């Protein structure tokens, strides 16, 4: 299938698909005219990539761990490949720290709002 067809099937822009290709996440075949030729398995691969991106993983981490992704009846899940647990724990720690910073900022904002001049 052409890139426009894959984009339509997955809900991902052609630009994003080219970005995934640039990052080595997608490797389409090429036809005799040089056009990208995607397969049905690429639809699943894009779903896995999108699930990992939405969970906060960057393309470098996705490239390392994409083979750990599985698609089942309940969506995409990750098999705990070597080093993946440490990477996910680190990401969770960064998210927790950011949430704490946001709560503190929100508290300071609330205090400023409640001060009457």
Mean pLDDT equals: 91
Major sheet: size, sense and barrel closure? 2 strands, antiparallel
Q: Calculate Rg over CA atoms.
A: 20 Å
Q: Number of helical segments?
A: 5
Helical proportion? 55-70%
The class by helix and strand makeup works out as: mainly alpha
N-to-C order of helices and strands: HHEEHHEEH
CATH-defined fold name of the largest domain: Multidrug-efflux Transporter Regulator, Chain: A, Domain 2
How far is the first residue's CA from the last residue's CA? 65 Å
Q: How is the largest sheet built, in terms of strand order?
A: 1-2
CATH architecture of the largest domain: Orthogonal Bundle
The rough form would be described as elongated
**Strand-residue proportion:** 5-15%
- The unreliable regions are none
* Name of the CATH first level of the largest domain: Mainly Alpha
Protein name: MerR family transcriptional regulator
GO molecular function: DNA binding; DNA-binding transcription factor activity
Keywords: DNA-binding
Domain HTH merR-type: 1-68
């Amino acid at each position: 299938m052409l890139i426009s067809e894959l984009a339509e099937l997955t809900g991902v822009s052609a630009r994003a698909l080219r970005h995934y290709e640039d990052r080595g996440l997608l490797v389409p075949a090429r036809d005799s005219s040089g056009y990208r030729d995607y397969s049905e398995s690429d639809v699943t691969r894009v779903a896995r990539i999108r699930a990992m991106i939405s969970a906060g993983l960057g393309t470098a981490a996705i490239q390392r761990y994409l083979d750990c992704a599985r698609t089942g009846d309940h969506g995409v899940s990750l098999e705990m490949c070597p080093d993946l647990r440490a990477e996910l724990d680190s990401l969770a720690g960064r998210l927790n720290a950011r949430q704490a910073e946001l709560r503190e900022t929100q508290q300071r904002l609330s205090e400023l709002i409640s001060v009457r001049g």
